[in-house]
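Q: Could you fold this chain for me?
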Amino acid sequence: MIKALIFDINETLLDINAMKTGLAEVLNGDETLVDLWFANLLHHSLVDVASSQFHDFIDIGAAALVMVAYSKGIQLTQEHAKQTIKQHITSLPPHDDVAAALKALKQKGVTLIALSNSSSAGLDAQLSYANIKSYFDIVLSVESIRTYKPYPSVYHWACQQAEVAPNDTLMVAAHGWDVSGAKAAGLNTAFVERPGKMMYPLGLAPDYSIESLDQLIPSVFNA
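A: Sure. Below is the predicted structure, expressed as structure tokens.
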């Protein structure tokens, strides 16, 4: 029986497409490079942990943005990149299905947890701007344990904070790597099929695959 749901934030709950125009301003207007930037951000967050380092998620994002710019012959300083990301990543709107789904889940009496690679301050700003912070019983940033998802220790730590066992917990994410990581850590998983997102073909299959968050209750609790 599912007692707690852990939600990824960026792209799962918040629409990151809203920042494409802003970041494209420092990439010669090329919005297609923003997806490349985000992939590099995630990649280098894992490089950080694997090499026994830990930098703020936005600092890694800035470094990744500088690298993407450099690959296209664009000069960009680390500080300019950082300020550009901070300006836009903390003002992302929620997807249309988010508020209603969180409200309905809250009424079910299950524990709702926000878990993000973003810093504590950045995560707080994101949830507050999107006006969804009040739905969560627990808000967790990996900054507290200095390890990024999808390392298994992150998911186990989140379960410990909520005082629930992994097999009583459902990880909800629009990233195949996040779903696969949580599954490997012993959690139940739900993949959210946001536009353009698919499961990693070689990853661990999710328990549920849903097109929108309003399918969570009928899929998970009324099955």
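A (continued): The beta strands are 4-7, 111-116, 138-141, 169-173, 188-192, 208-210.
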